[in-house]
Amino acid sequence: MKTDDLIAMLSTNVEPVDHRQIVRSIGMAVAAGTALAVGIVLFVLGPRAGLTTIAAFIPALLKVAVTAIILVPASIYLIRLTRPGGERRSSVALVALPFIAVMLLAVLSLTFAPSYHWNGTILGDDWLECLISIPLIAIVPFSVIVWAVRQMAPTDLARTGAFVGLVAGCVSAIGYAVHCADDSVPFFALWYGGTIALCTFAGWKLGPKLLRW
Amino acid sequence: MVANEAELRGLMRASLRGDAAAYRALLSRLSANLRAYYKGRLARIGRSAAEAEDLTQEALMAVHTRRHTYDPAVPLMPWVHAIARYKLIDHLRQTHASMKDLPIDDAEEIMAQDHHVGSESAHDLNRLLGQLPDKMRRTIQSVKLDGLSVAETASQYGMSESDVKVSVHRGLKALVTSVARKGRL
Question: Under an 8 A CB cutoff, do A152 and B69 touch?
Fold first, then answer.
């Protein structure tokens, strides 16, 4: 095939293209992933006891809000990464900051708590359920977001994969927060933070395979 | 003729609005830059220049099928360069070349020179089209090769216009995929 023939073919009857499509597609994938994660938690695990009372609603809302503080910048960076060369215009530091802040808070609240309480605050009632649920539920939003990112053109597949994992992990954690009744800061930092980090790692490993174009 | 960022960006913006003449001009200017880039890179690591034409065409197809990922608010050439480099690395990875030899480079290099002498690539368009499902092949033949309008193609094959557009779009993406896979054979 001659290159000129290819150019003639590509430029015949060319359709207008909307450059805002990326923001819309990725945004919708994240929203759909969140709806699915919350739906799965509500139907499979059920909402936490007394979610409609202030005493249970406020801590659940706080967990959702803190996770969203990581989710929103991560989604913005993910959108940047899906454009060719986007990795040159994104800094991981800004996304890592909220993460580190929550970890610091956890360490602080542990130092102020008497050491015989540590076991209770760190392990909570159901650390194992949290450890299993968040990564498992994350598979659903992860698949939806991977599908959306594959329509784009990321050029750093490992990093883009890591961000897909991070976003999916956050979305899953938001869903799980509707069910989870452990509200201590160290619990949140260790099990939510840890499982979200695990999802990020999985995305980093899977990115080059899943996102190639 | 050396790549001029402002001019090429203007052509790209017009292309995104559906201006076929601007798009054709853009692609032929980019093909010269891409050819020079690939020839230079491949020569530096001792690979044949014949691969450059294949890669040039793959990069042009990638520019085409991924043009919605260009943000008109930022310069065009870094975007083109990122695609060119991605396709080069992908190609070398498939053909088991050493990655260590590929120097980090920046957008200026792809703008610095160009080659207008196009040769023929190893891609056989008819063979590639032959691998597509009938509907995609017919619509690409009609809209992209014979130059019939989407409306004419739609009435000829008894399809809706949006069906024709989707079919052409998917067909081109499938072409890119089969071109990119040939390195593994």
Answer: yes
